[in-house]
Amino acid sequence: MSNKGIRKFYLSIVLPSIIAICLFIISIYIIIIPAFEKNIMERKKEMIGELTKTAWSLLEEYDKEYKNNEITLSQAKQLAASKIKQMRYGKESKDYFWIIDMHPNMIMHPYRKELNGTDLSNYQDPEGKKLFVEAVNIVNEKGEGYIHYLWQWKDDSTRIVPKLSFVKAYHEWKWVVGTGIYLEDVKEEISSLRARLLKISFIITIVISIILLYIIRQSLNIEKRRKNTEEKLKTSRQKYQTLVDASIDGTIMIINNKIIFSNLKFNKMLGSAAADVLSLSFDDIFEVKWKEAISYFSKPGKSVTIETHLKCIDKPFRDVVITVSKILYEKQDGFIIITKDTTRQKQIEKETKSLSSEVQTSLLLMNQPIKHFIKDLIKCDMNTSITDVALLMTRKKQKVIFICQENKIIGVVNDSDLKTRVLAKNLEINKPVSEIMTAPVVYIQDNILLYEAVLLCNNENISHLAVKNNMGAIIGVISNEDILEMQRNTLSYLIREIEIAEDIHQIKIINEKAPVLIKALLESGGKTLNITRIITSLTDAISKRIIALAIETVGQPPCKFAFIALGSEGRMEQTLATDQDNAIIFDDSENVEIEEAYQYFHKLAEIINKNLDYAGYEFCKGDIMAKNPKWTQPLAVWKEYFSDWIINSDPQSILDACIFFDFRCIYGNREFTNELRDFVNELVEYKAVFFHHLANSVIKFKSPVSLFGSIIGESDLDDNQAINIKKILLPIICFIRIYAIKNKLKETNSLERAEKLYSMKIFSKPLYDELVLSYNYLMLLRFRFQTIQLLNNNQPNNLIDINKLTDIEKTTLKKIFSEITNLQTKLSFDFKGMA
Q1: Integer Cα distance of 550 and 558 in angstroms
Q2: Integer Cα distance of 182 and 114 in angstroms
Q3: d(CA 549, CA 507)
Q4: What average pLDDT does this structure show over 308-312?
Q5: Using CB atoms within 10 A as the burial measure, which of 184, 212, 574, 707 is most buried?
Q6: Residue 58's Cα: distance from chain center in Å?
Q7: Share of the chain above pLDDT 70, in %
């Protein structure tokens, strides 16, 4: 190396390194050590705050038992004080909690028992501070806070040291609970930390000095090695570029998170020039994130296949399968991504699945007994005039009438007979109807299937069939036209009807046909996923049509937006008893007039929610709907909402916000929900307290007790011995949701989430099987009772009558309750200690 190079080396490397060492040592004394001291104190304060709140929560639990008339107030206070008295923490398990009232009087102190029951109004520490009076003043003013004072060292009454306590009021009982830390412990910890930091800084200084000497020694060879490396890199780049260009599939190569090569096939798929492709990142091109794609690799030589979307320039997204291969490129990791277009294949699979479902639904309907579809019949005496018969049929809006002789049916007349046998032949209309009736009447039993009735009508060339029950009594009539109408109640037909509906009343009528489909699927053993898919498809189609009609009324939106479904609709798990849970996300880019957007979308939401309610989707009792201004907001505000829920919220707020984590776009720009989902997935990283609170919502779930031998609780039963099945499903759904959020899944459906977690080896095979079986069983029970309620013209709900369950069904419920307990144990193990 030349003298000029050596001087440049010393000025550019050695001198800055020495300066950096000096700044490092100075920063340890001026910045790092004070910052660590402050951080330790803040962590200690946060710790005693959380511990006090834990003890405080016991007061709340015992107060709830008192309010539920399970114990008396005196018993509740005694049990709470006794429980808190036994609580210990710290290295020696000698740190404790104490309780006073608002007077203040000492309720409980585990070490200073002589204070229990005494008036503390004049109690002072050695410096004269009335610490208990100050504690009461703080909680009266703020509800909770910190106090400094002098106190005995743990259980050693001879040693008095400074102490910092956190106090929190439980206003229901006018109690104050508190605990504290000894500042001597904190000072000792800080001193130990300071010593370690000084030792580390000394070692680092020595190590850096040695490294500098080594660098100086090695620097003479750097220039020669650099030239050799450049030659090798040039050769290697040419080799890989040839490989990429020769691929018959769309191929790119990525080094250091940058695209360095792309072949002609890939450029055409993306619809972009080669130079433009090189300026893009992986995340700009594919829907799947680069961080997720490379997370599967541990060493070169491995390949992974991922289904995703290609974000084509000025074209719709393409369904693609990418194969990512890891290579070693000049001693650094490189990746080759081969892209195959599967758009056509996906479309074929989707159409095949849809057609299969349509055929299955149609076959299921045609295999239903006709007793579910018969209509009431009208009768008249054989001597009734043709005129009166025609008037009766018109008034009753019926196309057929049965003719009786002494209350025995002997014939039948339909509207076709009136045309062909009366009008066409100019027959006297005052003649008795018996002259034009068809006899004898063709009967069928009520237990034959729809397709058998179709065959009979076709073979006999008749339009109506009288239906008898197993006692031989005629109970109704069914027509060939009615049967054909049943065949129209397939999913695709109903959705097509919804898409062309011109008013909300038409949509309401179509939606009322859903129970027929669901009942057919239930009675034929249909899968829960198929049933919820049908309901979700109908709901989505209805929502889209209602939104489109609302936009026609209000006018085109001033900016892009997404109408999102939340809760059960967001999870695609709606049942026949459901309310609305929805919201709106709209664009907040610079060119959008936010105030104008607010006014437009609030007006649009009012119409949408009102029409959804009319169509059969009741208003949300918690007002979680787009018409609530709080839930129609720009994307930035939604990000703030989720940030607050994840970072700052208390357990109850997180519990109330759970349904928002199941959001799904059903109309508008999906880019907003995709961006929001990515934002949430990044935000939950390392948020232990958030997951701790989520897990607690399931852990605190109390299985119902009593009806089948310690199983169903009185709080879950009404006067008719019915249990709310939704409450039993909730811990299972929440359990799956917690792990889905933790592992950053994009799926919202519970069964799809569980399957994904199983494939990722987060769930074991036995756990996955138990979750699926429990979920499916509870959902099918829910559907069964709701369908019965609807067909009986009752409002569907989530209650199931215990007395209508078989012993086997009750036993299955017992097993599910047992499984919920296992889920709570797993959550407690995985998340309880994360707070």
Answers
A1: 14
A2: 21
A3: 11
A4: 86
A5: 574
A6: 30
A7: 84
- pLDDT band for 178, please (50, 70, 90 cuts): very high
Instruction: At 414, give phi and psi (nearest 5°).
Output: -115, 175
CA atoms lying within 13 Å on the CB side of residue 766: 3
- Amino acid of residue 691: F
The whole-angstrom separation of Cα 467 and Cα 464 is 10
pLDDT in tens, 722-733: 888 888 999 999
Tokens describing residue 21: 């060492």
Residue 52, CB half-sphere, CA atoms under 13 Å: how many?
26
Is residue 504 very low, low, confident or very high in pLDDT (cuts 50, 70, 90)? very high
| C-alpha span between 430 and 158 (Å, rounded) | 119
Mean pLDDT for 159-188 is 88
**Pick the residue with more confidence: 33 or 120?**
120
Model pTM?
0.49
- Are 306 and 312 within 8 A, CB to CB? no
Contact status, residue 527 vs residue 406, Cβ threshold 8 Å: no
Q: Look at residues 739, 681, 631, 646 and name the one whose alpha carbon lies nearest to residue 289.
A: 681
Rounded-to-integer distance, Cα 623 and Cα 343, Å: 40
Q: In terms of C-beta density within 10 A (0-12 exposed, 13-18 middle, 19 or more buried), how is residue 248 classed?
A: exposed
d(CA 514, CA 538): 8
Q: How far is CA 3 from the centre of its chain?
A: 67
- Whether 100 and 52 have beta carbons less than 8 Å apart is answered as no
Alpha-carbon torsion (381, 386, 391, 393), positive or negative:
positive
Token pair 């580390």 is found at 200
| Rounded Cα–Cα distance for residues 822 and 25 (Å) | 53
Based on its alpha-carbon atoms, the radius of gyration of the chain, rounded to whole angstroms, reads 37
pLDDT at 101: 93
Average pLDDT over residues 463-479: 85
pLDDT, tens digit, 9 for 90 and up, residues 763-792: 999 999 999 999 999 998 888 888 778 767
Q: In angstroms, how far apart are the furthest CA atoms of the chain?
A: 130
Burial annotation 398-432 (CB, 10 A radius, 16+ → b, else e): bbbbbbeeeeebebbbbeebbeebbeeeeeeeeeb
* Spatial distance between the Cα atoms of 268 and 280, rounded to a whole number of angstroms: 15
